[in-house]
């Protein structure tokens, strides 16, 4: 392995997006198959993930293969996001889904493993609702990180994925009301870049990022938004904020890293995928299509690097 490859610090950044995390996991699994890779996570020194991307990041850190995470979504998705008239009606006044099925699925997946048991450096965004502050869960990859390593992985996963109006806030960690990290870092690319620079003292020239979105639906915005009020903007505002944040982050990463900031977030027609609607066949098809085009670039740009073994400072 050449010296340049050894010096690299490669980050995998995984977006939020509910059940659409199925696509992200399927894409990683398909890249493994297309390139004959034993474990794609071996190419990355750090994984950052928000919401469903945080669940995938924790799974990869735990030692699950991408195809096993695909099976997790396939097995538990319908019970976590049940399609019922009651849920749709309740959504107007309360959280749409019970947190019970998600909590039990995460417990079955992660058992009693703690954040310190991760085989990779992880950074998982959440948000402290009471303080109005960002909240980052981190593996003990720096001597200052003395607390989070004790937290069970399932609690971290529940905190990062507590999407407002879909699930209640998570109060499993010190009774703090934690909600979905997508409120401020749905695309967590810059979270990873800053962590590598500020906490790990990696030079900017060494950092590369593969950022994976959960598909980018394009729809024509109605003319009513031009002068619209609360009723017109009730759902459009959320979509605009998420999309604007994601594109802004990628622009910042490009300015800092140039071609070493790679983003995969395929444009799809509006309505094909949804945060809480399972569409396995279409997601698998999209993952296969993207992997077919991207696999040669992954091979030339990321596959040459093998991350050094991560040893947690505290455990």
Describe the model:
The protein is α/β, with parallel strands linked by helices. It is built from twelve helices and nine strands. The chain has helices at residues 3-7, 21-35, 52-62, 66-80, 85-90, 100-110, 153-160, 182-185, 189-199, 230-233, 236-257, 280-301, and strands spanning 9-14, 46-49, 121-128, 133-138, 178-180, 207-212, 216-218, 261-264, 267-269. Strands 1, 2, 3, 4, 5, 6 and 8 form a seven-stranded mixed beta sheet that branches. Strands 7-9 form a two-stranded parallel sheet. Helix 2 links the parallel strand 1 and strand 2 (46-49). Helix 2 runs antiparallel to helix 4. The longest helix has 22 residues, at 236-257. It is globular. The model is unreliable at 1-5 (pLDDT under 50).
Write a concise synopsis of the structure shown.
This protein is α/β, with parallel strands linked by helices and 315 residues long. Helices cover 43% and strands 14% of the residues.
- Alpha-carbon Rg, integer: 19 Å
User: Helix content range of the residues, please?
Assistant: 40-55%
- Classify the secondary structure makeup into a structural class: alpha/beta
Overall pLDDT level: 92
Tell me the strand percentage band: 5-15%
What profile does the largest beta sheet have? 7 strands, mixed
Q: Uncertain runs with pLDDT below 50, 5 residues or more?
A: 1-5
> How would you sum up the global shape?
globular
How far is the N terminus from the C terminus? Answer: 31 Å
What is the count of β-strands? Answer: 9
Helix count?
A: 12
Oligomer: single chain
């Amino acid at each position: 392995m050449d010296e340049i490859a050894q010096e690299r610090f490669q980050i995998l950044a995984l977006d939020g997006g509910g059940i659409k995390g199925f696509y992200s996991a399927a894409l990683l699994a398909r890249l493994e198959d297309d390139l004959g890779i034993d474990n794609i996570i071996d190419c990355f020194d750090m994984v950052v993930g928000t919401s469903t991307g945080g669940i995938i990041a924790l799974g990869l850190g735990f030692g699950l293969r991408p195809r096993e995470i695909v099976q997790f979504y396939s097995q538990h998705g319908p019970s976590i996001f049940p399609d019922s008239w009651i849920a749709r009606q309740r959504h107007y006044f309360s959280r749409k889904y019970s947190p019970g099925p998600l909590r039990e699925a995460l417990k079955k997946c992660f058992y009693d493993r703690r954040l310190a048991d991760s085989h990779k450096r992880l950074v998982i965004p959440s948000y402290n609702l009471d303080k109005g502050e960002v909240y980052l869960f981190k593996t003990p990859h720096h001597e200052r990180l003395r607390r989070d390593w004790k937290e069970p992985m399932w609690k971290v996963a529940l905190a990062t994925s507590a999407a407002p109006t879909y699930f209640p806030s998570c109060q499993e960690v010190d009774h703090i009301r934690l909600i979905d990290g997508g409120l401020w870092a749905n695309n967590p690319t810059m979270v990873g870049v800053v962590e590598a620079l500020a906490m790990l003292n990696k030079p900017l020239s060494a950092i590369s990022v593969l950022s994976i979105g959960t598909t980018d639906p394009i729809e024509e915005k109605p003319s009513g938004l031009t002068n619209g009020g609360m009723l017109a903007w009730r759902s459009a505002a959320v979509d605009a904020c998420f999309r604007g944040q994601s594109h802004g982050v990628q622009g910042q990463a490009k300015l800092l890293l140039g071609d070493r900031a790679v983003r995969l977030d395929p444009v799809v027609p509006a309505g094909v995928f949804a945060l809480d609607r399972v569409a396995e066949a279409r997601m698998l098809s999209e993952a296969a299509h993207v992997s077919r085009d991207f696999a040669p670039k992954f091979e030339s740009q990321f596959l040459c690097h093998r991350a050094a073994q991560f040893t947690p400072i505290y455990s």
